[in-house]
Design goal:
alpha+beta, Jelly Rolls, 4-stranded antiparallel beta sheet, 17 strands
Length: 317
């Protein structure tokens, strides 16, 4: 029974693994809900004081164009506010959040990115796996926290319960060619995902939240942003994305998934420690072969040995 290469809540041996864990009844119910739906909601998880300070920093720093930041921002979102906001960092590393994630994934979580929103994104349905993926697979998740009450009018998050059980779709599922994709083709991916939801007859649901509620979603669940019905209404929120220790981390959107040339995320920083993230495959560090700008192939042991042998032969000739 191999429990190393998938989060245990997504393992085909879930029930057997569950029997080996010493969990409370509420923890068991949480794990079962997460496995079935691909998400769980934790009401009132975050203290109001932390919520208020995070929202204040987002407003006065993140979305204040007179305040200098080095990361991306537009009128809807600010990336990595944690770099200039202690509150955003504290929220990303909130101990109860990390405890829930370690419970669900069986590995130490690695917070690596925050996104703070002022308005609803109205983003089309997608899976985070097109942007963030890992080897072993699916050791990634997102945590969305409401910084104010979210209603049907201000563009709430929507999701497709159970869609995490579908394959991880990337451009090798869409295009017939072997070229490396880029963000110019992202619209094709979104259209494809919309058709996949219809073909599988999966219905979407909205997440209507109270201030301080947290939504934890698995890497492959399909989700997006609903239309903003009340013009000008805000949807203050923070999303933190997490990987988990002992994986290789890459971006399928910029990888060639046909030739297995991966866009490795070599510059990841653990928000909790402010230190670079060390990558490995279940603790084993592999040698990587660079095949292009930011593209790499991971080399198994047999090929690594052959590579060493060829170098020795070349040295003797």
């Amino acid at each position: 029974m191999n429990t190393d290469n998938l989060p245990w809540v997504e393992s085909p041996f879930f029930e057997d693994v569950l029997k080996t864990k010493n969990l409370t009844e509420s923890e068991i119910n949480l794990a079962k809900e997460y496995r079935e739906n691909g998400f769980v909601v934790i009401p009132g998880l975050i203290p109001q004081s932390l919520i208020d300070q995070t929202k204040s920093d987002a407003e006065n720093k993140g979305f204040n164009t007179d305040f200098p930041i080095k990361t991306f921002r537009n009128k809807e979102r600010v990336q990595d506010l944690w770099q200039v906001s202690d509150a955003a960092k504290e929220l990303a590393c909130f101990p109860k959040v990390l405890d829930y994630l370690e419970l669900l994934y069986g590995r130490e979580p690695v917070p690596f990115q925050t996104l703070n929103f002022k308005y609803g994104t109205q983003q089309k349905a997608h899976s985070d796996t097109i942007h963030f993926s890992s080897l072993p697979a699916r050791f990634m998740c997102g945590v969305w926290v409401a910084l104010e009450d979210i209603t049907a009018e201000n563009g709430p998050v929507f999701y497709y319960p159970g869609s995490q059980n579908l394959p991880e779709y990337d451009f090798s599922s869409i295009k017939s060619g072997t070229g490396t994709p880029n963000y110019d083709s992202y619209g094709e991916y979104e259209d494809f995902i919309g058709k996949i939801m219809k073909a599988n007859h999966i219905e979407s649901k909205q997440f209507l939240a109270k201030k301080g509620d947290a939504l934890i979603w698995s890497s492959n669940i399909i989700h997006g942003g609903s239309p903003v019905i009340k013009e000008g209404s805000t949807r203050w929120s923070q999303v933190t994305h997490y990987f988990f220790e002992d994986c290789y981390y890459y971006t399928p959107m910029l990888s060639n998934m046909v030739t297995k040339e991966l866009f490795l995320r070599n510059n990841l920083v653990n928000i909790k420690t402010n230190k670079p993230v060390k990558q490995s495959y279940n603790g084993e560090q592999l040698k990587v072969l660079k095949t292009g700008k930011d593209l790499y192939v991971l080399l198994p042991k047999a090929i690594r040995s052959l590579s060493v042998a060829l170098k020795l032969i070349k040295g003797k000739s």
